Amino acid sequence: MEDVTQLAPGQYSVKGEMWNLPGQYEIKSRVGSGAYGCVCKAADKGTGRFLAVKRIANVFISKTDALRILREISILRRLNHPNVISLVDVPRIPPPPAPVKTMYVVFDFAGTDLHKLVHNGTTLPVDTVRVLMKQMCMGVRYLHHSCVIHRDLKPANILIDTQSWGLKIADFGLSRVLEQGTNSHVCPHLMSSNEDESEADHHGDSDGPPKMSRQISEHVVTRWYRAPEVILCRGHYGYSIDVWSVGCIFAELLNMATCQPKTKKRPLFPGRSCFPLSPSSHTCFKDVTDQLNVIFSIIGTPSQAEIDSLEAGEDVKTYLARLAPSPPVDLQERFPEAGADEITILKGMIEFLAEKRMTLDQALDLPYLAGVDAPVEGVEDHREAPFMLTRKSSAMAAEDLLALDLEHQYDRRNHEEAVKRLSAMFRREIDSLHASESRVKRGAPGSQPQGGGGDEFFDCHSPTSGERGQAV
Predict the structure, then answer these.
(1) 29: which strand partners?
(2) Which positions ≥6 away from 163 have C-beta within 8 Å?
(3) What is the predicted pLDDT for the residue at 438?
(4) Is position 411 annotated as part of the catalytic site?
(5) Once rounded to an integer, what is the mean pLDDT over residues 433-444?
(6) Catalytic residue among 89, 108, 152, 171
(7) Does this model's pTM top 0.90?
(8) Cβ atoms of 159 and 448 closer than 8 Å
(9) Ordered structural domains, the chain, with CATH
């Protein structure tokens, strides 16, 4: 095991870092490192199942990172779908008053991700592209039926097992839970968490507590996969931003099914800057590499009627109206080997207006996807989620965040109290995860994996068709 040395049962040195895991896990190899720490491939000694273990050091050095980690744990432990990454375990952290410094999070293991396959110039059979696209649509549809917007769909967050071609959606650190019954395209009443202020433009006195916004943050979704309304509408968006991202990823999948040189298999919208969030935004209006201009070079500039119906400020509408008219490109020419259904799906998912965008149900009903069998045994067409999450399920209630009174980096004035309160939130989630696992193992009535019913976050069952937004 290169870079991995076992020092004692459950204790490993991984490239000089000390890992302390429960004895049931055996580290096999170091996979790589991400935004929050190192990731290793491990095996569960009892089942032989391969898992991915993420080691997160200095959990509370950044308020933004800590809340993203907590949000991912909180949301994932309630989800259960074959095309969504499973949160397998979070080994218990020290009881109070011991501080939480390092924690481990255990997920499903997938051999690679779509970004790596694209970067390596992998060519896929047409049928494999269909299989992957169907699974991605099914997974995202499940999230939306669970009132979750992913907000960061991109190839690196699409995990793939290249032996079975099973697909799982990962990385829920930027996800949000919508209010039940909220319009799926405009969400002005969704309370954002504090770190959104650091992600987007921060206003106000930097010495005071972060202000709470009554919009979702603007600076979400990696630039190339960012829907127009995320760029333009300042927090007024909903589930359709994920559909746009799926469309962008689908374009890259279509590229992988061709025999073109790697240099021509580019992302659909590879912008280099992004009005209005980039520091150089005052120069972006005429910059052909700005994200909006790159988008309009493909889908065409919006009509006046589309501009008028956009949930945006007058300055944005004025800017759009002054753009030189540009027609859409012929996507069939751009993807000559794609069939009519593929082009219909792609075109429908990258519509400028969210309300005109194709839904995932519509995409999955087309013959191109409807006739595809899922590659993983036991996968069902989950049109209804086993649980609908409420806003409290995000564990990011406004009062919790305001009580923390944090800067982007903690300082001596608030660090100790902040760590204490945030540690309590982590312990609550981890304890609930273990309690739900115990109920499942015991076969307790009504128990569900990742469900967590009966805890402080008030999960409720997904409504039946026609009853969306009503708790059962």
Answers:
(1) 41
(2) 111
(3) 63
(4) no
(5) 66
(6) 152
(7) no
(8) no
(9) 4-110+405-442 (3.30.200.20), 112-370 (1.10.510.10)
